[in-house]
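Quick entry, no commentary yet.
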Amino acid sequence: MGASAAVSSESAEIPVAQLAGFNLQDYLPRRAVDEGPRVQGQVNLPWPEGFPGRQMHKGRFRVYIDEHGRVRRVAVEALEMAPPFVELTQQAFLQAHFEPGKLGGMPVRTWILIEVVYEDSGVVFTQVLSEQ
């Protein structure tokens, strides 16, 4: 039985995508663990199909990764992107797999802050921001 993903809204303007059974208090910030989570493979972030124009779209997302490396929640922190880019980014990270963060050599639930930039050339950049 697979877990279902839902897109909800903490406020009318800040969408959140998460899997069922998520508890925010169970996750440590990257700065509180010895080793941060590392993505395994690539996160596919295509330009939205049929979206007109090629202007830059940028957003910061808080990605919550459980002790098994599964992304459980993707929440918007700051946004300069159209809704199709937000949804594509959230869904792409919900499907990504990570090597989990570690504390004392043991896997733990961790969150990281990432920035995603869709540039006018169609190139997408992602980076983990400083230890916030």
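second:
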Amino acid sequence: MTSAAFRTMAGAIIGSVFFVAPAQAQLGGLMGKAKSAAGLGSSGSQAGTMSGDEADAFLEASFRSTKNVLIATTLILQAVEKRGPLTGLKTRINAINSTSDPKEIGSFKSALSANLQALDNRKEFAGDFQTAYQAASAEEKKVLGIAVLNLAIGIARNVDLVGKAPQVVDAIKGNPKLLMRAGQFKTAAELVALQGKGLAGISTSVPKLLAAAKVRAPKDAKTTNETPVTL
């Protein structure tokens, strides 16, 4: 591949990360307050250079976070909008969990965006969730508790990913092998930006969601694995 083609690929990645930057700024105030109240700890931009292996880890974490947040918000929306029993989402949740192809994960963008917007638009999101949780069966309460916990983990993880995004750009520009996978990194950057923008609005409700579900966020949420959902 020519150097000109490499520069074109790098430009696509950089464009995606520039889109992440406004989300990072928006997250600064809203999510800092929410994370503190929820006991999520702190996380900020990372310093230093990033190796190729670390760039790969960023890619994997971005896709994993996308699936986690999509599942969590899908379950929560099902409850607050009274769409029916959570077990009705079994096929959908299994399909998301089993997806590993970057292109397929990238296709989740529209569904994820719709979920985040729907939750952000609810004026009484926390109150609606509390009502839905109280009306749920014992099994559904367990699932909703996991969903809220996973959402909190997703918020902390996303802040960490947004902070690492500029380093990923530097790593890609200096590594031709990574540039060959520019499309995957561009998709990851877009997904991180989408979550950053969408989660900023609903993050302030997370402490109340955790309290309603009687669960406590882990001390270091950004490094904690999400809990698998079984329906």
